[in-house]
Amino acid sequence: MLKSSSNSLILRIELDQKVTTFGEVANAVSLVGGDIVAIDVIRSDKQSTTRDITVNLGEQAEELIADRIRMLPGVVLHHISDPTFLVHLGGKIEIQPKIPVKNRDDLSKVYTPGVAKVCMAIHENPDKAFTLTIKRNTVAVISDGTAVLGLGDIGPEAAMPVMEGKAMLFKQLAGVDAVPICLNTKDTEDIIRTIKNIAPAFGGINLEDISSPRCFEIESRLKEELDIPVFHDDQHGTAVVVLAGLINSLRLTKKRIEDIRIVVVGIGAAGVSIIKMLLGAGAKTILAVDRQGILTRDNTYENPLWDWVAQNTNQEDRKGSLSDAMNGADVFIGVSGPNVLKLEEVHRMASDPIIFAMANPTPEIDPESAAPYVRVIATGRSDFPNQINNVLCFPGIFRGALDCRASQINEEMKLAASKAIAFTVTDDELNEQYIIPSIFNEKVVQEIRDQVVQAAIQTGVARRIPPEFKGSKLLERKLTPIS
Ligand SMILES: NC(=O)C1=CN([C@@H]2O[C@H](COP(=O)(O)OP(=O)(O)OC[C@H]3O[C@@H](n4cnc5c(N)ncnc54)[C@H](O)[C@@H]3O)[C@@H](O)[C@H]2O)C=CC1
Ligand SMILES: CC(=O)C(=O)O
Ligand SMILES: [Mg+2]
């Protein structure tokens, strides 16, 4: 059962010290499977003590704990709060001025009349928007709320906490200002039109949690029609990090990407892009599985990308379900939904099985149950080791793209980002519990940024050469090949 800090409660209890002891409370918590991780004394006198106790709980135990504590003599449960909700109160980000406006003189510079000459300078040369506005360092994080994590079509308002979270991480990890925007339309043309209309303010567009297949057309049309990077994070960010995790898992198992059998489950935004990236990196044997089973060449599909996937995978024409696909697989990559993979299917994998169960918030298999039977287990969650999550990619790749004012994020830049992430983990550090660096590893964003800028310059999409890349100063470091 998943028990983590994202599933914790703060219980404010008052204890009559003449009647009971804190040990009784601790015992009640433990009886429902909770772990006390913090105790704060709020008030204390001779008669009673009031404490906030923070408890990590299994998913089903939340209801039980209040009942248990209320049953204890001498204990009053004042209230229960959820720390995850507390950090969301009023939203998670804000906009701050970079300079104070203290007097009329300041006002006349930052606003009218002074601002007018800056406006006219941009009017005469629109490129100046990059130097004289927030465009240089600002990305829009845009969703229509249709494929939010694995929660599905929950609407634009409900999608905002995820988009705010992404914006927060853009800033904290890479210094990129990001504006969360959730659109109240699911219409492809409407979405494209809206994004094109707001694009002048931004240096990049990060599309997020837009369901497939609409996400593919929205992204490709915007890429054609805009001259700033448009990057569907669930597709490419995820694929970049999966490839990084696979490179490192193969460093451990000493297998070559050309030789392994890979099963990808969930052929949506993330799944299609992962398959494309793995094929580009040399993978030869991939089975693509969705709800109807393994995609095969002799079928035609409504979604043209499924036709593409079917034509480019499953060369052995295997048919059947996920369970059939798992026979002899070296690698399972799940970007589908909760609990789709059974332990019995894991037992039928090849030696040194590698599992990336990446559905959020609930993975395809409980990582703790699978761990004893596999060589590597990774999830998309931050509360387990080996977090394979696009958060490792999007801050650094946009940092690089913005710094060199790239017109797009191309395949070479994505591959450079994958390798940068993978080789942040040194040979000495690499082990089954550490195939992918933590997002808090300070080297990650810088490494990605440097390699991405270099790839952008080399492929001719950089419109600005950062000073450290001028002349002969291009990065010399050669990356180890994937296999
Ligand atoms: N760890 C990470 O960085 C990321 C994780 N994800 C997770 O991957 C999942 C899919 O995300 P998207 O590709 O954006 O969604 P999507 O909606 O574009 O695609 C999901 C696909 O999975 C299939 N699917 C769902 N349940 C299935 C099942 N039981 N068996 C087989 N196929 C099934 C659907 O039919 C669909 O084709 C979500 O849970 C999401 O949270 C997505 C992006 C990044
Ligand atoms: C991580 C992410 O972007 C997702 O689960 O949709
Ligand atoms: Mg997402």
UniProtKB/TrEMBL annotation:
Cofactor: Mg(2+); Mn(2+)
Catalytic residues of the enzyme: Y111, K166
Keyword Metal-binding included in the entry's annotation: yes
Name of the protein this chain belongs to: NAD-dependent malic enzyme
Keywords: Metal-binding, Oxidoreductase
Chain ranges passing through the membrane: none
Binding site for (S)-malate: N360, N389
GO MF annotation, one: metal ion binding
Recorded family membership: Belongs to the malic enzymes family.
Segments forming domain Malic enzyme NAD-binding: 235-457
Cofactor, free-text remark: Divalent metal cations. Prefers magnesium or manganese.
